[in-house]
Design the sequence.
């Protein structure tokens, strides 16, 4: 997708969001629901400060803090700021490619192959999860399973089946807030139907003209050692992000 | 009565009878010889494989006793670096004070992601004190190209197939990423000093040997290790040594898991089944040989029916008749068993010298198993198998012998 078509699709999505919002509770097609989710969750530019809380089975808790910059769905830069032991660890994502930089190594490493399945900084979010940004409406065929309610919010429950074979999750089940177009819960499955991960999104806040989840709890069904919670502490949309932030030179050199 | 029985030269008679129909006797002897040959070789081979497995497992994995932080075994499949042993020097000195301890070596075991020229792949880091591991992990013997890493430099010895997959060779640089003792992400840049060929499939495909100090840097494990591997003076006493070390260390060093090699996995316990396995093979082979002996001896006694009847008519007791047939079979069995023991021993001894190369097969095995197996021949078991062959031949002849003894002499002479 070119920049121009992406911008056009975003504009169309934003327009449809405005136009269709009052009718959200009425019957819709699954594609329309997904299109509005994509539109709501896609940002132009953003800067956020967040914390990653990893809870271990034995009761230990590790809290990491980071800052992130993003442009569209294709470019993101993350730098961990705390604790001191992890400060300076950086990640760059461009399209589907991802690199890591550790200060003590002094060299960026492309994350690929087996490493994509590893947990980012020891969390339940795999590097594959972090690097893959599927467009729900373009990459999945959806069917509506039912109307339901979740945490007192009206939701559509959708079953998504991947159109492409290279996606990490061939099937997903999505609970979408019917009025705010925000996913509130997601189950990710392997091709054979085995549950791989469960994400619970919450603390939904209004940011400008959209609703955005500020908390995500992720549980890896295959790894019972940990659960991970991401809390966005501060988020600004539409900020100016210099293009050089999303380069390997910046990754290795820092700000 | 006993004087009369002692006058019958049973062995001489049996030997003479055995030579009366050499082809049939040879068939009986061959049946026993084949069984004994196979068993002597099989026993030596199995002992060689088991010794190899246990030795490699103890040297590379379990020691005779392994000391780790409490809770490690339950999470072993993660190789959790946060469950570690600090102040290892003090711990090593304390363990070494036990008179049953031959040696004790600290090791660091961790999963890493290795970024090479062609790709990045998961690997197994083994951080070891290279000079002290000369008799245990034997790193010098693994080096297929290059050299061992220098203890104080960021260098690595890389498994041969692992290096192939990563597309790196001696002198190339690698980046290692791993979860540290604080559960954060650690990294280390190392140079490939050498390529290792361990002969153990999974190690060749994943091993990264680092000097202990470098592994400590990678995992933020200053002065620490993930395990202490203890080698006993008497491996058979590993269970009691583990208990003694538990008492000696107590909780002074924090809660520990002290396990003998029998407690660490099913491999050592499985070797207890080896005797059962050999017993079953013995039963099968001697069973088949017995069928041949029963048949040939039945033919013999039918052929000599009148002869036995005459002996009975002249006053030979039933018991003597039975003994005569049984001893004849045993004499033939002795010849076969000796030939079998010699043949089986010759094959086992030759293969003990040259070894059996299972390199291609071992590539698919996930066992600590050297690619070249050397059978372990021992005189005692070989003689035992020969003796068993003689006994089986004699027992197999009881049925035909009993038939002779029960036959009325007059009827046999008429027929």
Sequence:
């Amino acid at each position: 997708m070119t920049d121009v078509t992406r911008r056009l699709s975003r504009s169309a999505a934003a327009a449809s969001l405005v136009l269709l919002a009052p009718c959200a509770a009425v019957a819709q097609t699954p594609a329309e629901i997904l299109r509005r989710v994509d539109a709501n969750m896609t940002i132009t530019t953003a800067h956020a400060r967040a914390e990653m809380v990893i809870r271990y089975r034995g009761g230990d808790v590790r809290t990491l803090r980071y800052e992130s910059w993003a442009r569209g769905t294709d470019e993101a830069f993350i730098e961990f700021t705390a604790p001191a032991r992890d400060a300076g660890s950086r990640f760059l994502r461009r399209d589907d490619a991802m690199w890591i930089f550790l200060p003590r190594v002094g060299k960026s490493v492309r994350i690929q192959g087996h490493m994509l399945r590893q947990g980012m900084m020891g969390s339940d979010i795999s590097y594959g999860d972090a690097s893959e940004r599927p467009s729900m409406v373009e990459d999945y065929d959806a069917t509506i399973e039912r109307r339901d309610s979740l945490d007192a919010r009206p939701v559509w429950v959708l079953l998504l089946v991947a159109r492409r074979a290279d996606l990490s999750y061939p099937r997903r089940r999505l609970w979408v807030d019917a009025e705010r177009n925000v996913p509130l819960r997601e189950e990710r499955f392997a091709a054979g139907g085995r549950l791989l991960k469960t994400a619970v999104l919450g603390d939904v806040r209004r940011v400008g003209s959209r609703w955005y989840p500020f908390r995500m709890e992720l549980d890896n069904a295959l790894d019972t050692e940990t659960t991970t919670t991401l809390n966005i502490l501060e988020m600004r949309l539409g900020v100016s992000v210099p293009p050089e932030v999303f380069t390997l030179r910046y990754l290795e050199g820092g700000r | 009565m006993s004087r009369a029985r002692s006058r019958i030269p049973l062995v001489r008679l049996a030997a003479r009878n055995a030579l009366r129909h050499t082809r049939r006797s040879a068939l009986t002897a061959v049946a026993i010889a084949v069984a004994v040959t196979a068993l002597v070789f099989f026993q030596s081979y199995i002992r060689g494989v088991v010794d190899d497995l246990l030795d490699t497992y103890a040297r590379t994995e379990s020691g005779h006793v392994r000391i780790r932080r409490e809770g490690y075994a339950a999470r072993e499949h993660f190789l959790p670096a946060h469950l570690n042993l600090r102040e290892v020097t003090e711990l090593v000195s304390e363990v070494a004070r036990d008179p049953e301890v031959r040696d004790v070596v600290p090791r660091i075991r961790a999963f890493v992601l290795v970024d090479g020229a062609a790709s990045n792949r998961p690997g197994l880091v083994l951080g070891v004190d290279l000079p002290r591991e000369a008799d245990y992990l034997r790193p010098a013997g693994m080096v297929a190209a290059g050299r061992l890493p220098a203890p104080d430099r960021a260098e690595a010895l890389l498994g041969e197939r692992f290096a192939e997959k990563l597309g790196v060779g001696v002198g190339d640089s690698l980046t290692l990423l791993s979860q540290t003792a604080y559960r954060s992400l650690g990294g280390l840049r190392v140079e490939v000093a050498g390529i290792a060929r361990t002969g153990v499939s999974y190690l060749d495909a994943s091993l990264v040997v680092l000097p202990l100090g470098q592994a400590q840097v990678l995992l933020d494990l200053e002065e620490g290790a993930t395990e202490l591997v203890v080698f006993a003076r008497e491996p058979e006493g590993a269970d009691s040594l583990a208990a003694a070390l538990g008492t000696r260390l107590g909780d002074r060093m924090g809660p520990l898991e002290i396990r003998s090699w029998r407690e660490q996995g099913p491999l050592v316990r499985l070797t207890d089944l080896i005797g059962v396995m050999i017993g079953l093979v013995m039963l099968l082979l001697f069973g088949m040989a017995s069928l041949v002996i029963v048949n040939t001896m039945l033919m013999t006694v039918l052929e000599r029916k009148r002869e036995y009847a005459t002996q009975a008519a002249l006053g030979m007791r039933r018991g003597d008749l039975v003994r005569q047939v049984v001893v004849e079979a045993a004499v033939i069995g002795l010849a076969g068993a000796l030939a079998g023991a010699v043949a089986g021993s010759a094959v086992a001894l030759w293969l003990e010298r040259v070894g059996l190369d299972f390199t291609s097969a071992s590539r698919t095995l996930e066992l600590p198993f050297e690619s070249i197996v050397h059978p372990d021949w021992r005189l005692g078991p070989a003689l035992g198998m020969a003796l068993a062959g003689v006994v089986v031949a004699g027992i197999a002849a009881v049925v035909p012998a009993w038939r002779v003894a029960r036959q009325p002499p007059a009827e046999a002479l008429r027929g």
Observations:
- Chain A has two domains: 3-43+132-230, 45-119+238-253.
- The mean pLDDT of chain A is 85.
- Chain A touches chain B through 27 residues (CB under 8 Å).
- The domain at 3-43+132-230 of chain A is CATH 2.50.20.10 (outer membrane lipoprotein receptor (LolB), chain A).
